[in-house]
C-alpha cells in the first residue's frame, strides 16, 4: 500500500509523519501522473484558495476528479474537506474550483479567522468503535470550515456545538443566521461517504493516529472488496483462482 499526500501547500509533511508512525509508505503528489501509483490519497489542510490555484496551475483538477471517481479512498482534512465538497459557501470573491464528490455543503471559513482557531474534545463514537481509545478526540481547528448539510448517503462521524446566533452564511449581499434556534446547535465536522472521508479539523497535528489508522483500514477494505469482485469474475468464466489473500499487518491503535 502506498498513500499519496497532495503536497502543493499546507500540512502534508505532518500527514506523512503520521503515516510513517503507522508503518505505512507514502509519496508526495504534485503531478497528475503520480496519482497512478497510489492506492489512496490524502488532501491536507492549508490555505484552500492557494491550494486551488496551485492545483489549477499544475492541471491537477481533472486527475483528482478522476481519482475520486475510481472509488479509491480519499481523505480531506480542513482545506481538503472544502476540496471534496460538492458545494461551498463563504468563499472569497470569485470562489475557487472544487474537486467534488462529497454530497454536502461546506462553509469555507465557518469558525472565523486565524486568531479564532481553537482546540476542543469532540465525541467520535464511530472512530472509538473501530479504533478503540477514548470516547473523544482532540480536534485542532485552524481557520476551520464546517459542514452545513449533507445528502442521504453521507454518514456523519462527528459534530460540534456552536452558539445559535453563529452566522451560517454571509456575503456582501446576504447574511443568514439562526436567530430563533435553541441556545445551542451543532455543525458537522467529520463525514464519510463511500470512498470519501473528510474532517474539518487537523488529525495530523496531534499524536493520536486513530483517524489515520481508520483511513488505512478504509483503504484495505475497499481494496479487498475490489479484489474479491475481480476474483469472482475470473472464476465465473471458468478459470481457477490460484491466488491467496495476503496477510495484512495489524495497524497500531491509539492507547
From TrEMBL:
CDD domains reported for this sequence: GATase1_PB
Family classification: Belongs to the glutaminase PdxT/SNO family.
Protein name: glutaminase
Bias (Low complexity): 227-244
Basic and acidic residues biased stretches: 245-255
Gene name of this polypeptide: LOC104737989
Coiled coil: none
Organism lineage: Eukaryota, Viridiplantae, Streptophyta, Embryophyta, Tracheophyta
InterPro entries: Class_I_gatase-like (IPR029062), PdxT/SNO (IPR002161), PdxT/SNO_CS (IPR021196)
SUPFAM superfamilies reported in the protein's UniProt record: Class I glutamine amidotransferase-like
Catalytic reaction(s) noted: L-glutamine + H2O = L-glutamate + NH4(+)
Top-level class of the enzyme under EC nomenclature: hydrolase
Keywords (A to Z) from UniProt: Glutamine amidotransferase, Hydrolase, Lyase
Origin superkingdom: Eukaryota
Enzyme Commission number: 3.5.1.2
Region annotation (Disordered) ranges: 227-255
